[in-house]
């Protein structure tokens, strides 16, 4: 929250803002239910504030879901943290109560179809947290470029872009 005025609002000529944050808020926080509920609420409030300020500055705002970070040996892996990630992602995909002009489901692009709490093996950079080159390429391939022409899309029901893998097919839903 301390840098966005400089790094977002202070950038001359910027037209768009993509909000993709949360792993490093959820992960290091204690996994107890009360702390995780507070982290989730704080993330939602921060997203709403940044989005509101960005819109006031004339930017279109896109929300991206928090990607999976579960997996054996990953320090952030915990059911309570996963619940926080899912709760925040549901809020994002729902348009963030009008915060977002469009949403992109990065989690669906990178998740293992058999266990959406972990990165798909082909996208896991090895730490179960960061995507590898193929994972970043999947995000690029799945990124809906048409959102840049969204203009004044109805904010109450922004377009949602989901991409998932089933069997041998990539599936897209708009």
From TrEMBL:
Gene3D superfamilies: SGNH hydrolase. It comes from the Eukaryota. Pfam families: Lipase_GDSL_2. Residues 13-138 form the SGNH hydrolase-type esterase domain. PANTHER family: GDSL-LIKE LIPASE/ACYLHYDROLASE, PUTATIVE (AFU_ORTHOLOGUE AFUA_2G00820)-RELATED, GDSL-LIKE LIPASE_ACYLHYDROLASE, PUTATIVE (AFU_ORTHOLOGUE AFUA_2G00820)-RELATED. This is Putative extracellular gdsl-like lipase protein. It comes from Eutypa lata (strain UCR-EL1) (Grapevine dieback disease fungus).
């Amino acid at each position: 929250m301390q840098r966005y005025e400089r790094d977002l609002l202070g950038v001359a000529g910027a037209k768009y803002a993509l909000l993709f944050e949360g792993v490093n808020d959820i992960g290091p926080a204690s996994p107890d239910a009360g702390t995780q509920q507070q982290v989730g609420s704080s993330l939602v409030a921060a997203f709403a504030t940044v989005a509101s300020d960005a819109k006031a500055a004339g930017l279109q705002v896109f929300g991206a879901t928090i990607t999976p970070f579960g997996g054996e040996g990953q320090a952030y892996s915990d059911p309570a943290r996963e619940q926080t990630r899912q709760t925040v992602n549901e809020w994002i995909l729902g348009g963030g109560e009008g915060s977002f002009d469009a949403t992109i489901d990065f989690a669906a692009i990178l998740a293992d179809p058999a266990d959406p709490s972990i990165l798909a093996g082909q996208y896991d950079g090895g730490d179960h947290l960061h995507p590898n080159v193929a994972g970043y390429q999947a995000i690029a391939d799945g990124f809906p470029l048409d959102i840049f022409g969204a203009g004044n899309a109805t904010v109450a029901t922004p377009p949602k872009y989901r991409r998932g893998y089933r069997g041998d097919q990539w599936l897209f839903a708009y």
